[in-house]
Design a protein that fits this description.
alpha/beta; two-stranded parallel ribbon; 17% strand; 5 helices; 179 residues
């Protein structure tokens, strides 16, 4: 005799487990694809940099880079070759997190009130103090030298690049050496 149309069929536990696993695997696959896509996107603004404020500039671990810039002037100016090199390095660093030769890069926007403390005007008569600085209160950067790239290791500024050409060359060399 045929089953009645109004009768419900019982689903087995094996069926529930099977379809639950299929759904879980599909969900994991979708998440992995989204994460891969987000990581592969190229950067096209300084907003994608993790921003450091004040004393955080010397509190990170390992060797890392800090890009000192003024977001007000960067947003108002046209994206040029220098910006493209910096954006390219930011994208490259995100894709190569596990490579120790590719240093993390952070942003240090001088528009932030905590960060303005280290900026002195070019005509103030004060001398810039950047190399070998271990304490945030000792750091002095001339406004005319911005943008600047600080190379920091062991909570100490070990080197810096203060021209567009020097910054571009340094970042491009890291990219070329680690392709």
């Amino acid at each position: 005799m045929n089953k009645k149309y109004g009768q419900q069929q019982k689903t087995s536990y094996k069926s529930i487990i099977f379809w639950g696993l299929i759904a879980l695997i599909t969900l994991i696959f979708i998440i992995v694809i989204i994460v891969r896509f987000a990581q592969s996107r190229t950067v096209n603004s300084y907003d994608s940099l993790k921003q450091l404020q004040g004393e955080e500039i010397l509190e990170q671990s390992d060797k890392y880079l800090v890009f000192v810039y003024n977001s007000t002037t960067e947003k108002s100016s046209e994206i040029d070759n220098f910006d493209k090199v910096v954006f390219n390095y930011i994208s490259f660093a995100k894709r190569n997190k596990s490579n120790e030769s590719v240093f993390k890069i952070f942003g240090f926007d001088i528009v932030n009130p905590d960060n303005k403390k280290v900026v002195i005007s070019s005509d103030s008569g004060k001398t810039a103090n950047i190399s070998n600085v271990e304490d945030f209160s000792e750091l002095l950067i001339k406004s005319g030298d911005i943008p600047m790239l600080l190379i920091i290791s062991g909570n100490k500024i070990i080197d810096y690049k203060d021209s567009d050409n020097a910054i571009s060359e340094y970042l491009q060399n890291i990219i070329d050496e680690n392709k």
